[in-house]
UniProtKB/TrEMBL annotation:
Record carries keyword Flavoprotein: yes
Organism: Allobranchiibius huperziae
Top-level division of the source organism's lineage: Bacteria
A GO MF term: FAD binding
Keywords associated with the record: FAD, Flavoprotein
Cofactor: FAD
Entry protein name: 2-polyprenyl-6-methoxyphenol hydroxylase-like FAD-dependent oxidoreductase
FAD-binding domain location: 4-355
InterPro entries found in the cross-reference section: FAD-bd, FAD/NAD-bd_sf, RIFMO-like
The keyword Lipid metabolism is annotated on this UniProt entry: no
Pfam family, one: FAD_binding_3
Amino acid sequence: MDPDVIVVGAGPVGMTAAALLHRAGVTVRILERQTKRPQNPRAATIHPRTLEVLDALPAAHGSNTHGHRATLGAQLAAAGTPMPATHFAALPSLLSYERLDTSYPFVLMCPQPITERVLAEHLTGAGVAIETGVEIVDVDQDDDGIVVHDTNHRAHRARYVIGADGAHSAVRHATDITFPGTTATLAGFGADGVLDRLPERRHQWDPVRGSLSVLTFPNGLHRVFGIEPSETNLADEDARRRQAHVPDVEEIKATLRRVAGDDFGLHDVVWTGRTGDVTRHADRYRSGRILLAGDAAHVHFPAGGQGLNVGVQDAANLAWKLAAEIAGWAPDRLVRGAQSYDAERRPVGEQLASNTQAQSAVMHTFSPSGAALRDLMSELIAQDGDTAEHLRGWLSGLSVRYPAPGTTPGEEHPRAGTRVPDLPLSDGRTLHPALRPDVLTLVSIGAIVPPSLLSKVPGDRLQLLHSVRSWGDAAGALVRPDGYTAAVWDHVTDPELIAQTARSWVATTQT
Ligand SMILES: Cc1cc2nc3c(=O)[nH]c(=O)nc-3n(C[C@H](O)[C@H](O)[C@H](O)COP(=O)(O)OP(=O)(O)OC[C@H]3O[C@@H](n4cnc5c(N)ncnc54)[C@H](O)[C@@H]3O)c2cc1C
């Protein structure tokens, strides 16, 4: 039988989408062109919101978990190295995560192959096979469904397809979705290996010599990355030509000596590569039954470790809405209106593009004015005021906010559309693992809510949980399956109002 959804691409985003859809009861196939998982470390930085999102999924049986939590987020956290602070634009002043209201108040150093292994093992445990060696070349769609075609002339049918097939997405190419943006202007260097000694400063920058950053991975490896001034301000063709040349170990060591005066005894190198700053963003995330997520929808300079993180959060926003659409309970505004996947996530993609471009400007303006800009930014971050708060909120993923329905911007409740922290519940659980993909959750936070209210929402699509911790002044919050508030009340005096709001998120007629 044809599945509901075909996910093209078993990268971190495709696997997260498939896992969340499966959990929501959607039948899913994952088609992946590669037969062996790449060991290229790429994403090393996992931010708190990504781990929170993965708390919606159970940990593999018997796995090590962070604290007492048996969730995939906790399992991944246990597989990496937590660091108390992260950087913006490789500036010397760091952004501390230690005071964040999250179960994961740290930035996790975790090479991408480990993240992918954890997700792949979860899928296997859940009985979802990743079909490897299947390369998709085209997609057709009509009113009833989609057909994806592979290089072996086979046709695979489903009701929907998610293109999570990376920057050069064949799924995106098969649609009328465009991918506008800016071309390459630079060619940075990077390598993962063992360092005999560490530089005094993790991030160093010099207007003449260039920049170098060093990250530490859980397995004793280090990542070195940076750029020489001569590799910036390039014409597109030149930048691409230089990016195409992958430096060998000796070239990387020579570059380190030029930039930092030492190669730090780099050895046992597992990867060398180039970084680029092509920034492109899909003009739509949906075309009919075809949806895009992750790098298939947005590419950018890899600054601050964000591509995988934002992509996983795309998947979390998409999965419950598509599941609701398939099950027939999604109101129109979840499918194509103001609360749709496209409407909520494309602004986040825009912000991702501009944030990484801003970081690139701060990192790559090798001149006295660039140095002055860095000093200024670093000073503002060190003050730990509004600037630090804003950047921390963005990088951690915790400040993403979706416009609340039916409210005028600026007049909505300050917590409307925000993500709810992992509040402890009266039944001993915490909120994030207790959220369900197919129901809204009414969290009473001190307010008395009559359980009879549940029967006023069709299809049993409301559960009631009681927080034993306060959350600002909120007395109650209606929480979506992806952990964002649909509505927040300071006083819960009228249960009928809550029921009405909850009903507005549930289509009463099957589509
Ligand atoms: C050097 C570097 C460092 C980075 N560091 C970070 C970081 O610290 N933090 C962070 O968040 N991000 C980082 N990123 C970005 C991150 O690696 C990507 O954003 C992330 O891999 C995107 O995941 P994805 O699943 O969307 O796409 P991908 O990881 O590209 O996965 C796409 C999958 O689709 C498959 N596929 C492609 N085409 C087809 C087809 N036609 N048919 C079938 N399958 C197909 C591919 O084989 C692949 O498995 C970094 C990137 C680089 C290059």
